[in-house]
C-alpha cells in the first residue's frame, strides 16, 4: 500500500512524496490508542470521582460533565480552523498530545494531595463537605487543559491518518476505507482496557494510582507520535476553507439581483487553481441562489491567467459547489445530535451503583463505570465481522463498495437508539421495583437502597448502544470525510465532535428541565439523588420519543440528500426504500 506521487509542498516546489500507508499506522493509531487509554481511563470514572471524592450531587456532577464534554467537543471546530489555517495537522496533534498529558497530570494531583479535594465522606455521614473554590479551580484547570488537548487531537487525527494513503490509487482508497473501521476497532479495545483495569484500580485500589496510570499512558502517546515523524506525509496548511465559504456567501448576496443563467455549467465562471487538491465537481441544481457568486460581470476583474483579482467580488463554480457540499451535510449532521443523546445514557453509572454488582456468589463487585465495557465489547466484536464478512456479502448483493450506502448505515444506528432507550426504560422499572420490594442489605450513603436486581440486566441496553455506535458513529466519520471537499478534512473531522458537543448541551438542558419541572409534580421528581424514589424510566421513554421523531426527520433528509459529485438531478438517493 505504498505509492509515490508528486505533490506541492512549501515554496511551491515539487518533490517526490512516499505514501507509507500501513507503515505509518502504528505510530498514528498507537498515539490515538494511548491517548484514549489516558483520556477514557480518567473520563470514564469521573461521575464516580466527582460524587465520591469531590462530594458533588449527581445532578451537579452530570451537568458539569455535560458542559465539559460539550466544550471539549466544540473546541474541535476551533482546533480544525487553527490546524487548516496556521499550524497544519502534525504540529496541532503534537500540541494537543502534550496539553492532554498536562491536563491528566493536574487531575491526578487532585487525588494525590488531600488539600486538593474535600475530606472523605463515609457511608454513615448524612451531610458531606463539598469542594472549596480553590479545589474546584484546580480541578477545572485540568479540565481546561484536556479541552485544549482534545480540541487539537480529535479533528486532526483521522485526517492525518488518511494523509498517509494515496487517494488516487485503488490500494490507497481501500486503505482509507479499512483505516476508518480498524481505527475505531483499536480505539474501542483501548477503551475496554480503560473501563476495566484502570477503573478497577481507581474504584477499588487507589484513586491517586488509578489516575496516575492514564497520565503515564498519555506520556507514551506523546512519545509514539513523535517517533514516527520521519515517515509521515506532512501536508502544510493551505489557509482556512471557512474563508472560501464566506466569500461565496458574501458574493452571492451582493449579486442576488442578477438573473441566473439558463445553462449554469456552461455560463458560470469556472477557474480552478492549479494547486487545488479538491476533486472537480459538476454543477448541481440544489442551492442555485449560490450560483450567482460565479456570474462574471464587467467590473469583477479577471487576470490574464484566468484567476480573479478579488475573490470577494467573483468566485469560481468549483468554489460554489464546494460550499454546496458543506450546506448539504448540515441537515444530516443535525440528525446525529439526538442520536448521541439516545446512545449515551447519562445515568447508567448511577443505575449500576444502585444494583447488585456482585460476580456470582463472590464478594467481588464490578465497578459501576466498568459496565460501559459491554457497549465497547459489542462494537469491538461487530466491526471486524462487519468489515470482513457482512460488507463483502452485501457488496455482492448491491454492487456498492460499502455493501450499503453510508446514510443507510447511519440510519440503522439512529433506529437502534429507539430500541436502546425503550429497553433501558423497561430495565429501570425492574431495577426500581426490586429495590423497593427486595433491597439488598447496606446502602450508598444518603443515595438510597441497592436493588437486588443484577446489574448485568443493564447489558442489553449497553450492547444496543455499542451496536448503534458501530453503525452510526463510524458511518458519520466516513460520511463527513467523503462528502466534504478535500481541503476541509479537518473541519469534516470536527463535525462529528461538534454533533457530540451539541448533544452534550442538549442532554444537560434536558436533564435540567426534567429535574426542575418534575420536582414538585404529582409523579414526583424523575431524577432525584435516590433513583428508587424517581422515575428514570419515564426519562428514558421521553428520550425514545425524541429518537422516533429524529429518525423520521433523518429519513426525510436522507431522501433529499445528494452525493458529492452527482450531477444535477440525475443522482442516486442515499436512503433507498426497500420493496
What topology does this entry show?
Layout (H helix, E strand, L loop, with lengths): L2 E6 L5 E6 L5 H19 L2 H7 L5 H55 L20 H30 L7 H36 L1 H21 L13 H14 L9 H4 L49 H27 L4 H6 L19 H26 L7 H32 L1 E5 L5 E3 L7 H25 L5 H30 L17 H25 L19
Antiparallel strand pairs: 1-2, 3-4
Helix pairs in contact: 1-3, 1-4, 1-5, 1-6, 2-3, 3-4, 3-6, 3-14, 4-14, 5-6, 5-11, 9-12, 9-13, 9-14, 9-15, 11-13, 12-13, 12-15, 13-14
Quick take:
This protein has helices at 25-43, 46-52, 58-112, 133-162, 170-205, 207-227, 241-254, 264-267, 317-343, 348-353, 373-398, 406-437, 459-483, 489-518, 536-560; strands at residues 3-8, 14-19, 439-443, 449-451.
Describe this structure in words.
It is a multi-pass membrane protein. Keywords: Membrane, Transmembrane, Transmembrane helix. It is found in: Membrane. InterPro entries: MFS_trans_sf, POT_fam. The chain is mostly helical. The protein has 15 helices and four strands. The longest helix is centred in the first third of the chain and has 55 residues. β3 and β4 form a beta hairpin. A two-stranded antiparallel ribbon has the order 1-2. The radius of gyration is 26 Å and the shape is globular. Helix content is 62%, strand content 3%.
Question: What distinguishing features does this structure have?
Answer:
single chain; mainly alpha; two-stranded antiparallel ribbon; transmembrane; POT_fam; transmembrane helix
**N- and C-termini, Cα separation:** 40 Å
What's the total helix number?
A: 15
* Number of beta-strand segments: 4
User: Strands across the major sheet, in which order?
Assistant: 1-2
Which word captures the global form? Answer: globular
Using only CA atoms, what is the Rg? Answer: 26 Å
Q: State the order of secondary-structure elements, H for helix, E for strand.
A: EEHHHHHHHHHHHHEEHHH
How many strands, what sense, and barrel or not for the largest sheet? 2 strands, antiparallel
Beta percentage is: under 5%
Q: Which consecutive residue ranges, at least 5 long each, have pLDDT under 50?
A: 1-15, 568-579
Helix content: 55-70%
The average pLDDT value, as a whole number, equals 82
Secondary-structure-based class equals mainly alpha
Main location: membrane
Family: Belongs to the major facilitator superfamily. Phosphate:H(+) symporter (TC 2.A.1.9) family.
GO cellular component, one term: membrane
Transmembrane segments: 63-83, 95-113, 133-153, 180-201, 207-226, 369-386, 406-427, 495-518, 538-556
